[in-house]
Write a structure and sequence with these properties.
The protein is an alpha/beta fold and 357 residues long. The protein contains 16 helices and 5 strands. The protein has a 5-stranded parallel sheet with strand order 3-2-1-4-5, with helices on both faces. It is globular, with a radius of gyration of 20 Å.
Length: 357
């Protein structure tokens, strides 16, 4: 990590706040050991006992990427009966589709694919680019989380298994993005720059996510990968062998949009290279040395002008000329704080939750 995170700080030993925070959180959320095995066993037994008369005992969102794919593999190994949901936001690569197909076929899983209305998604994503904010992944992430939780309610499934994990995601500066579940922020940006009403687009409000889902429906999020040894390279080799899974070459590069967003838009417009956070997470979890990470950082994802192919693809998909897209990207940077949002509500809500629950 470096000062492209404006909020980074270093202690007297030269350790940054990200590493210090991650190592503290590891004590209460990361158990790739016997303790994790016991916690996972207890959770699985509880799920099997309370959900035994239901068609599915849990639900998984499957993108075809490393985390969600390995999660599906482990859930089946544990003898659980998941409903697999894939949210198609319009940017899937052929490889992502093939990986999802192979996984559900090899593991004999039921798959439901939710296709987000493209005209609404396109309008929302174009609005986000015109807003000139860093968090361009919000339109997709919000739709994915919202649709997944809604299917859990529809199928009366209490346990949602998440691929989110400490081993590969312990470090991510808050200044590089913003909460994808803040619907007030999403709505404000769309109202400012969008034209099409979001009638079919999956939406989730603060109340729905943190009150209705959590306390009324008693939905539980299970981060299984925090309770098992999860090594990225080892997981890839297992999935290649067992599931005919293929690697994309980068974290979240299963989406062509996300590849362009993370590998070009963020570093060139805002100076944020998410590889720093991804690689730093692997260093903290002992999967990579700092020297190896620095060597990987020296490799250009888009050498020379090779980014233009993906930029042209994104512009065409969004329905605007390349020059207009380039002009939008060249506009002055904005922050999510420049638009109405519920940041204070989230902060207050989390404080209440952490104090009483």
């Amino acid at each position: 990590m470096d000062t492209t995170d404006p909020k980074i700080t270093f202690d007297e030993q030269g350790n940054c706040n990200h590493c210090s925070s991650a190592l503290e959180r590891a004590k209460v959320m990361w158990f790739p050991n016997e303790e994790g095995e016991k916690k996972l066993k207890a959770t699985v037994e509880q799920i099997k006992k309370t959900q035994k008369n239901k068609e599915y005992d849990c639900i998984i969102g499957l993108s075809g990427g490393i985390d969600s794919s390995f999660l599906a593999y482990k859930v089946v190994q544990l003898g659980l009966r998941p409903l697999v949901v894939h949210i198609d936001c319009g940017w899937n690569s052929e490889l992502a589709v093939k990986n999802v197909e192979n996984i559900v076929k090899k593991l004999n899983l039921d798959l439901h694919t939710h296709v987000v209305d493209w005209q609404e998604m396109r309008d929302l994503q174009l609005a986000y680019f015109k807003a000139n904010v860093a968090n361009q992944d919000v339109p997709q992430d919000h739709a994915i989380f919202s649709a997944l939780y809604s299917y859990a309610v529809k199928k009366n499934i209490k346990y949602v298994f998440s691929g989110g994990n400490f081993a590969t995601e312990s470090i991510l500066p808050q200044s590089w993005g913003y909460n994808a579940l803040d619907f007030k922020s999403l709505k404000a940006i769309h109202n400012s720059f969008g034209f099409k009403k979001l009638k079919k687009y999956p939406k989730v409000t603060f109340f729905k996510r943190y009150i209705y889902f959590s306390y009324i429906r008693k939905m539980r999020i299970v981060r299984l990968l925090n309770l098992v040894p999860f090594n990225k390279d080892e997981a890839i080799e297992i999935m290649k062998k067992e599931l005919d899974w293929q690697y994309y070459g980068g974290k979240h590069h299963e989406s062509r949009f996300t590849k362009f967003f993370q590998a070009y838009y963020l570093p060139h417009k805002f100076g944020y290279d998410k590889r720093r956070a991804h690689l730093s997470s692997l260093i903290v979890s002992g999967q990579l040395s700092r020297e190896e990470a620095l060597k990987e950082m020296s490799v250009e994802i888009y050498p020379d002008d090779s980014y233009l192919e993906d930029m042209e693809y994104v512009a065409k998909k969004l329905g605007i000329p390349l020059k207009e897209f380039q002009d939008i990207i060249a506009m002055p940077n904005k922050s999510y704080k420049d638009y109405p949002n519920n940041e204070k509500l989230f902060e207050y809500g989390f404080k209440i939750r952490n104090k009483f629950f």
